[in-house]
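Hey, I was hoping to borrow your eyes for a little while. There's a protein on my desk that I can't quite get my head around. The fold is given in discrete form, as structure tokens running alongside the sequence. I'd be grateful if you could look everything over and explain what you see. Here's the protein in full, and shout if anything looks odd to you:
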Amino acid sequence: QVHLVESGGGLVQAGGSLRLTCAASGRTFSSYVVGWFRQAPGLEREFVAAISRSVSSTRYADSVKGRFTISRDNAKKTVFLQMNSLKPEDTAIYYCAASSGRDYFYTAAQEHEYNYWGQGTQVTVSS
């Protein structure tokens, strides 16, 4: 089992950057695929990015490609989401999620593939 805690959200102007952190507890963190999702007011939660157990495979939503970068440090049980060139439409609550029982290079992009979720961190981008 794994417990996830997000941090790093806040208020930033359009064009700015933020770095979100997902800190995990549990002895087998390296065995989980980790993803970031977000939910804007009045909208469904959507996939943002995911990183495989191997660290070498990543996947991004088209809306964030080239602007966001996901990375992980298995030794520190931490996953990061570096967000650059932020836009007002990036405003949302960002959630970290972990998926167990996946292949080494697999990156999950569907909510139902994830077993564990953090509480979320608010990101607000002003125009």
